[in-house]
Amino acid sequence: xxxxxxxxxxxxxxxxxxxxxxxxxxxxxxxxxxxxxxxxxxxxxxxxxxxxxxxxxxxxxxxxxxxxxxxxxxxxxxxxxxxxxxxxxxxxxxxxxxxxxxxxxxxxxxxxxxxxxxxxxxxxxxxxxxxxxxxxxxxxxxxxxxxxxxxxxxxxxxxxxxxxxxxxxxxxxxxxxxxxxxxxxxx
Length: 187
Prior knowledge:
Layout: H1 3-28, E1 44-47, E2 50-53, E3 58-64, E4 67-72, H2 78-87, E5 94-96, E6 101-104, H3 110-144, H4 152-185
Antiparallel strand pairs: 1-2, 3-4, 4-6, 5-6
Helix pairs in contact: 1-3, 1-4, 3-4
């Protein structure tokens, strides 16, 4: 196999790894009945006029399976953090006791669990679309390498390799989805 084709396959593999990592991080943000600091990853707090991630203005911990505790590094940020959590529309109600913010994570209803499974499947589909787009781009680049003297046979072998990669990474996305669905539906 020519070096150009190998390079395209390696590039495609690296991009597919990133797509899997992104899909995994998006699925981790979907709550599964248990409290998780990842639930607050997207919360942005007004910090001296600048939207700042919550993790950069305080520590986020889970003392038990149903509670998240936010300990701000500056007490003056308590109201801003509380407002940011409410504005994030996570379906939780932060409680400010003047020192920390405590969030009780209510157990999920059956209907809410099904909604979260749909959301997880949507994220999985986004991951699969990204992987297919990477396959398309890699195949186009491999076909263009014909102009650089790569033979038809090498192009076909390269495209077959890219397809094998695509199939393997789509299976990984399916496994992530299955695990997340099981996590969500477990009471």
